[in-house]
Amino acid sequence: MEKILNRIHPVSDPEVTYFLQVSWEKDLGIGFGVTLTDGQCAWTGAVSEAEISREAADMEMNREKYVEELKKALISGEESAGKYNFSIS
């Protein structure tokens, strides 16, 4: 299993630092787990392959292109800094 941890500052609350851990087996496109923490509380979840396909279809985006964008936003870290905005709700 691969894991990556990124520090994020959501546009919804830029003064707060969150840490986002994404974990996956082989390929992000077959699903992944997420853990988000602000240092006091933590939230976990999972995204299935079906959910990825459904979201790509909802956005009228090619599935492979959607997975590439997920990789850039969730696991590329510093090289994608400033290109993606996160909102916590």
From TrEMBL:
<dbReference type="GO" id="GO:0033152">
    <property type="term" value="P:immunoglobulin V(D)J recombination"/>
</dbReference>
<protein>
    <submittedName>
        <fullName>XRCC4 protein</fullName>
    </submittedName>
</protein>
<dbReference type="Pfam" id="PF06632">
    <property type="entry name" value="XRCC4"/>
</dbReference>
<dbReference type="GO" id="GO:0032807">
    <property type="term" value="C:DNA ligase IV complex"/>
</dbReference>
<dbReference type="InterPro" id="IPR010585">
    <property type="entry name" value="DNA_repair_prot_XRCC4"/>
</dbReference>
<dbReference type="InterPro" id="IPR038051">
    <property type="entry name" value="XRCC4-like_N_sf"/>
</dbReference>
<dbReference type="GO" id="GO:0006303">
    <property type="term" value="P:double-strand break repair via nonhomologous end joining"/>
</dbReference>
<dbReference type="GO" id="GO:0003677">
    <property type="term" value="F:DNA binding"/>
</dbReference>
<dbReference type="InterPro" id="IPR053961">
    <property type="entry name" value="XRCC4_N"/>
</dbReference>
<keyword id="KW-0539">Nucleus</keyword>
<dbReference type="InterPro" id="IPR009089">
    <property type="entry name" value="XRCC4_N_sf"/>
</dbReference>
<keyword id="KW-0227">DNA damage</keyword>
<feature type="domain" description="XRCC4 N-terminal">
    <location>
        <begin position="17"/>
        <end position="88"/>
    </location>
</feature>
<dbReference type="GO" id="GO:0005958">
    <property type="term" value="C:DNA-dependent protein kinase-DNA ligase 4 complex"/>
</dbReference>
<keyword id="KW-0234">DNA repair</keyword>
<dbReference type="GO" id="GO:0010165">
    <property type="term" value="P:response to X-ray"/>
</dbReference>
